[in-house]
Amino acid sequence: MSKLIAPSILAADFANLQRDVEMLNNSDADWFHVDIMDGVFVPNISFGMPVLKAISKHAKKVIDVHLMIVDPDRYIDIFSKLGATNLTVHYEACTHLHRTIQAIKAAGMKAGVALNPHTPVSSLEDIIKDLDLVCLMSVNPGFGGQSFITNTYKKIKQLKQLIDTSNSPCKIEIDGGVTDQNADELIKAGADILVAGSFVFKSNNPTQTISNLKQIVTKRS
Ligand code: DX5
Ligand code: ZN
Q: Which ligand is nearest the CA of 143, by number?
């Protein structure tokens, strides 16, 4: 699989959301990364179903939904109906993770699990074969614009090894503090998908910034 760039809508201009969605449609972006926060699992509230519905109406690419919420099982079917292609839940928020993953797949979506910076990769040993995606948080979830945690490189390598030894089809996504300064190193370590919020949307030319990131990751592919 070629390496992918997933701009995070969290850093978009919500008063011009359609404009920013069209910008991503017409850019080298591969996925739309959509962060849903409930103010309980993380100390911030982002947006919910009506905004996802509005994004889906215009988005022409994969919609990668990252749930930072407690008890995600309650909303799996609705996220599927609202157009999510991938649904990622947090390891730390799921008591019955295996059941949750099966329910996501049964609803027709790709299933992902996100790990907080402190959660070891080895926690996924017994579920890795069932996963389509692991999202390694390279910041503490809840906010855009934070600094990248360098321990992530070690976790990428550990995860890559776990995936390879288990013959799992799972892909590795990195979320938080991604820039043109760490993109190459992340791909080199084994990442497949890079999420980038502030670095893309706070730049002078987001379309160009996405192209530059895509070029960096393609060189390593
Ligand atoms: C953080 C979110 C990220 C965030 C990334 O909780 O999961 O997706 O939008 O933003 P940046 O790229 O600004 O760190
Ligand atoms: Zn995210």
A: 1
